[in-house]
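Homework help board

Subject: predicted structure for assignment chain

Our instructor gave us this sequence and asked us to write out the predicted structure in token form, then describe one feature. I got the tokens but I'm not sure how to describe them. Can anyone check?
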Amino acid sequence: MKKHIAILDPFPRTLKLIFSKDKFKALKSRYELIYAPKKYKKNFYDKNIHKASFIIGQPDLPKDLLLKAKKLKAVINVESNFMNNMDYQYCFKKGIHVIATSPVFSKPVAEIALGMTLSLLRNIHTAHSDFIKGKEKYGLESNHNASLLSGKKIGLLGFGDLAKSLYPLLLPFSKDINVYDPWIPKINIQKLGFKSISLNKMFESCEVIYVLATVTTKNKHFIDKKLLNKMKPNTCFILMSRAAVVNFNDLIKQVKKRNILVATDVFPEEPVSKKSSLRKVKNILFSAHRAGALKSAFFEMGNIVLKDMSLMTKNLKPKFCKIANKKTVNLLASKPVAIN
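My token output:
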């Protein structure tokens, strides 16, 4: 039986990053592989897209190219962000699956989000720094502003893959989980025993707020001083998804003048300048966009890609990667990955 053809074009990812030796061996044994060049891609796709059943990557795919893709079953985005560089509606119309490997990051990000929360509430990172400097405080003196996560009123801003991996980790600490996500029906949230609340109410009442929403053309910088001003003193604000949903200037001003605790894994510009004044801001726990970047997570990409390719060769729907949503994909506005 003739093998399905897969075009390999994972940049900025690499095949070694995504596939373990065993998984890449499996890929080569099951499919005929064509490697996309780094340059002159338009010419390459003009000549080769008609052969392909799969594209592993996220190249520019305008309609004129897709018209030639008569055998194409799926575009598998391994950058993990759906970008505005292809004709999604044509793919939906022709039954071409557009999927992304983003679910592999949800568990690693969720676990570090919990760790950052505990560090904020119990001053773990500051106590460590104080000890190194010989300025440590012992006993109660070091815990005047510390508190428990147990029993806290928690807000999840966004209820996608990240939130669904995070809330099981939070339930042992608190059952008071409140969700804001305009794309998710309220009944779906309530079935889990959570409350669906407004954005204003979340910022007014929640003691720990996790920002887990993807960035769209409609929500850039929507978390601004008006919302941030509503937070109670000692509220934890943990930013784990995309920096562009927050007005960072407003956030920094709030941190400087109010008693709120902030942790962030993402920044408006990455890498952050060595001379950035952001580095000197107190009350922020910084993480250099590393929350999801585990070797095991990247190898899991190759695993779920192979699983979904196997399903699609049998004309079944993919179920391991994230499927582009017809209603929302053209609104997404995440920046491409700069550093793996």
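Reply (TA_rk): Your tokens look well-formed. For the description, you could write something like this. Residues 105-286 form a domain with the Rossmann fold fold (CATH 3.40.50.720). That's the kind of observation they're looking for.
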